[in-house]
Design brief:
19 helices
Length: about 475
């Protein structure tokens, strides 16, 4: 076998250290913090700092408009980066410490006038979401697409990297945080700052580990064939004219929107509808139990039935479970049964998204003869960011319009029926409609069966360039 053949031989020896530390342990620090922020930051603002009203509706939207710009900038920076570590990996290293600092600043709002506190919130909120989290997400999100062309390996790495989000971070946020909040943090700002500072300190070495143990094999391959820089206009055209790319972006926007609404609404739902914040742990553990099991079964199931087919079946379960839970939303046992069924259906979509994204990027490369990794990742992150903004703003609109009063909950009172109904719609009702749309999208997402021939053709094409 020639040296050129060796360079293009598929690397099957993705060692266990790369899988464990690069894709499971390493990302878990950031994912835990992001999960805590996603579930509790809104409550921290409304019930601890008593910041509400127009700011809480406008801030998420305005932040995401700015984030759309910073995502594109970060994607272009990644595409132009050439280093011995690759083009995306270096930014995992660069953002490790700034990420930790931004989290501390996000919660460490000083005791100033209301106006000054609101300005602090605006600045630190945008620093976290538009700068450091953008840098991390843009680089982290490209690790699976840039790791290998092999579909089987992609599915496995996709599952592994989502274990840090769905199992490790999910367990901490769902099973541990409610008891930490009710038993220690409460509505004490100083305790929240101390707790988030500890999590931030832990995240730094874990993020370093992700950087050390990941590898950009496709970047190395394209460096061998001296991939040329492609004008942004051509990259944009390549993306927006690819039906699979457009479908995936819409799907991602919907996923993040409903995910944010439900994550933020859960604390209100457990406390104000079911009667105790401790029910948040029960709802999350029982309803989310399938996610832990899914980490073990989703890879072999995808290999047997295919990513798309399994995901379509999953959405049938998600819609069915949502309808069951909505029938009797005040009954804990009934809701748990519905959420258990719903989260069985969540398993495929929760674990295979990076593999879908890798397939789409490779399909673009096959059609256009160039890659769009950085820009494509930036648009994906923009969709996620916009979805986060829409979801957060929509929840706060529902709380505002339904008559939610933060002081009532903070003092142990009972919210009005209209406020409770608004929370129920946010946590359970909206998801049924969005999941139905997502399922229809995935039915037409038939890219998977084409990927074996596409990957082989690209590898052959690159070999021929070396001639």
């Amino acid at each position: 076998m020639t040296a050129e053949d060796m360079k293009f031989k598929r690397l099957t020896d993705i060692c266990w250290r790369e899988k464990v530390f690069g894709y499971i342990v390493g990302p878990s620090g950031v994912m835990i913090i992001n999960g805590v922020i996603g579930s509790y930051l809104n409550m921290y603002y409304t019930d601890v700092l008593f910041i509400s009203g127009t700011l809480m509706v406008a801030l998420p939207i305005l932040c995401r408009l700015l984030n759309a710009i910073t995502n594109v900038i970060m994607g272009l920076v990644i595409d132009k980066t050439k280093s011995k570590w690759g083009k995306a990996r270096p930014y995992i290293l660069y953002c490790a410490i700034p990420f930790a600092i931004s989290v501390i600043l996000l919660f460490g709002v000083p005791n100033l006038s209301k106006k000054a506190m609101e300005i602090w919130v605006i600045i630190t909120y945008n620093l976290y979401y538009c700068v450091v989290l953008t840098m991390y997400n843009s680089s982290h999100g490209l690790m699976v697409p840039l790791s290998t062309r092999n579909n089987t390996d992609r599915i496995q790495l996709s599952v592994l990297t989502n274990i840090s989000t769905n199992v490790i971070a999910g367990t901490v946020v769902a099973a541990i945080m409610p008891f930490v909040v009710s038993g220690f943090l409460g509505y004490d700002k100083s305790k929240w700052i101390f707790f988030m500072a500890i999590l931030s300190a832990i995240s730094v070495p874990l993020t370093f580990a992700e950087f050390l143990y990941t590898k950009e094999r496709i970047t190395e391959e394209n460096a061998v064939v001296k991939e040329v820089n492609v004008p942004i206009k051509l990259q944009i055209k390549a993306m927006v004219t690819n039906k699979y790319w457009v479908m995936l972006m819409i799907y991602s926007l919907l996923t993040m929107t409903i995910g944010v609404i439900q994550n933020l609404a859960l604390v209100y739902y457990a406390r104000d509808v079911l009667g105790s914040i401790n029910h948040m742990a029960t709802v999350s553990i029982i309803g989310g139990l399938p996610m832990g099991i899914g980490a073990l079964i989703v890879w072999p199931l995808c290999k047997k039935f295919g990513k798309r087919n399994l995901t379509v079946i999953g959405f049938v379960f998600m819609v069915t479970g949502g309808v069951i839970a909505m029938v009797n939303p005040h009954n804990l046992v009934w809701v748990l049964a519905g959420l258990f069924i719903k989260n069985i259906g969540t398993i495929p979509s929760a674990y295979v998204m990076p593999a879908f994204f890798a397939d789409v990027n490779e399909h673009i490369e096959w059609r256009q003869h160039f890659r769009v990794d950085g820009l494509s990742s930036s648009v994906l992150n923009t969709m996620n960011s916009v979805g986060t903004g829409i979801g957060t703003a929509l929840l706060n609109v529902i709380l505002l319009k339904s008559g939610y009063e933060a002081v009532i909950s903070a003092t142990g009172g009972i919210q009005s029926q209209s406020a409770q109904m608004g929370i129920i719609i946010a946590f359970l009702g909206i998801g049924i409609f969005i999941n139905l749309i997502q399922g229809i999208i995935i039915v037409f997402f038939d890219i998977e069966n084409k990927m074996y021939n596409i990957s082989n053709e690209i590898k052959l094409r690159n070999k021929n360039k070396l001639g």
